[in-house]
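Hey, I'm writing a tutorial for new members on how sequence and structure tokens pair up, and I'd like a real worked example in the thread rather than a made-up one. If someone can provide the structure for the chain below, I'll link this post from the tutorial.
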Amino acid sequence: MSQAQLKSKVHHYLRKSQALQDYWQQPITSEHLQAEMNRMAKHTKQPEVLRELFEALGNDPFVIAECLVRPALAERLLTNSYAYDQRIHGELKERAKAELQAHGTVEQMKQTHGDYSEIEIVRSESAPGKENHENVKSVRRNGREWEETVQKVAETFNIGGSKTDPSTDPGGCNNSAEAKNVGARAYQAIPIGKLTSLQEDDTRYYTVAVVGKGNDQLKLATVSWLKEPLHSWLAKAETQVPVTIVAVDANYTLPVISGYSDNSVPSVACTDAWTLTNLTNVPDPRTFPTAVWTGSEMIVWGGYPQLNTGGKYDPSTDSWTATSTVNAPAGRELHTAVWTGSEMIVWGGRDVNGDFPITGARYCAQSGSPSPTPTPTATPCTGRCSPTPRPRPTPHPRP
């Protein structure tokens, strides 16, 4: 990026910080920045990426607080504050209410100045997708997604009993008979041809009407009055950018990045101590297995007594997950395993008959299964190959 581009980005997030202070009296303090830095490190789903960002900023907590944390925190706080501020969006809301009163039927929805759209929602257990039929977007939903959609539509019409009782569905899976009964009652109660009251989300005011309802099918019409985008409002509201920000003399602390185990990194805490790994779902005991490190997990596979099973250990969650046995190569010990960056490749070893197979397979840790075509691999014999079988090495003593 050019120096001008960098300067523009810095000005942009400083304007957001300034707007929070000027319009919502929410100055971003050093305590806020430290708390946000700690939150990032604790809850990141990509610890390797966060580590790279910290390193790019020299692992300097002050620079990280100002150049990484402040933009993210300012964006989130400003978006939340702006989205529902009636000082900014109140006029649009009154205009939408007036239009809705003047055009309160399904037939009149297109006569408003709002954006009109239709969508057809179909319950289907097939793969989700989108299709267009006569300019109407059709969206398929599986059973759980369908129940969630029906519940949301019912709630916009203030239909009582559209939610399941948490005590009867503590996991929130909506798979119980009670949940299905509640969903069926809500679906039957949804009226056709009636507009909802004016609704609001973070980007618009809107009203919805059900214009068609059949077996496992809903057709919805929506009119939306869009709020002014934040970037557009900010460009007008904050024309003056402070030339400098007064740096507070804050003693920031670089937090530990959760889930990253490289103890050479100053952002990761590590002490000279042992911690036992979890034994839940641990693979069966064995000798002579192989183990590779993927960057986030250890994969253990094979070993005596000629197993073709294994497990993935995630130190960030202290948990084991069994490797798939679909298309797995024959069980073996004393084999070789390497990590390519995306797959584990195993080859050779000794099988249950004491023979030395020239087969192998690739295991994809992402999907949890070997590659679909684990083909045997071998080097064609040349003039240097011995025509007689290799002598077998002396077997290892069995434990």
